[in-house]
């Protein structure tokens, strides 16, 4: 009983690191749980293995609790996906992953980062604004919302100085 209570009240801090192709099953499962259309393990494995792709993961013990993945081209990058498990949301993990990821991209010579986010995803928009992203465009009807509804995607950009 004491061990259970100790685990319940002691929160381990997530450890951030670059993901490897062997992490594809866990990342695919979290992606599928987080988005309307998930990516397969093979799609994730292929992306992580590509030279122009950077993927970070957040682990608590042996459990994946978050990831961020982007693709680079010349001095630009596009963040393709960011996800955090429901149990780890609201604790600043997405911000920690994003800041680590952006620092690493800058270290690799990236000068501009783009991303798309649903217009109704207020927490993500707030996170991206706090990291220096600004809306540069809008794609109407890009995301499938509730049945019969489509939501716009906001295209955001962050330039490194």
Please describe what this structure looks like:
- The protein is 32% helix and 37% strand.
- The protein is an alpha+beta fold and 161 residues long.
- It has a single domain (12-159), classed as Gcn5-related N-acetyltransferase (GNAT) (Aminopeptidase), CATH 3.40.630.
- The protein has a seven-stranded mixed sheet, with helices on both faces.
- Strand 3 (63-73) and strand 4 form a beta hairpin.
CATH class wording: Alpha Beta
CATH homologous superfamily identity: Gcn5-related N-acetyltransferase (GNAT)
What is the domain total for the residues? 1
Number of strands: 7
- The CATH topology comes to Aminopeptidase
Low-confidence stretches: none
The outline comes out as globular
Largest sheet: 7 strands, mixed
Q: Counting H and I runs of at least 4 residues, what is the number of helices? A: 5
Strand content: 35-45%
Radius of gyration: 16 Å
Residue share in helix: 25-40%
Which structural class matches the secondary elements? Answer: alpha+beta
Going across the biggest sheet, name each strand in turn.
1-2-3-4-5-7-6
From the N-terminal CA to the C-terminal CA, the straight-line distance is 53 Å
Q: What is the average per-residue confidence, as pLDDT, rounded to a whole number? A: 90
**CATH architecture verdict:** 3-Layer(aba) Sandwich
Order of helices and strands: HEHHEEEHEHEE
């Amino acid at each position: 009983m004491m061990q259970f209570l100790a685990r319940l009240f002691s929160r381990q801090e997530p450890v951030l690191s670059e993901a490897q192709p062997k992490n594809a099953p866990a990342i695919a499962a979290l992606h599928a749980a987080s988005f309307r259309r998930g990516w397969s393990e093979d799609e994730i494995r292929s992306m992580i293995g590509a030279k122009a792709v950077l993927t970070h993961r957040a682990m608590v013990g042996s459990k994946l609790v978050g990831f961020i993945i982007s693709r680079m081209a010349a001095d630009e990058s596009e963040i393709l996906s960011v996800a955090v498990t429901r149990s780890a949301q609201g604790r600043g993990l997405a911000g920690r992953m994003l800041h680590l990821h952006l620092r690493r991209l800058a270290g690799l010579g990236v000068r501009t980062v783009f991303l798309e986010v649903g217009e109704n995803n207020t927490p993500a928009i707030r996170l991206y604004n706090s990291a220096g992203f600004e809306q540069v465009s809008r794609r109407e009807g890009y995301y499938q919302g509730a049945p019969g509804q489509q939501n716009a995607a906001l295209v955001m950009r962050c330039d490194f100085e």
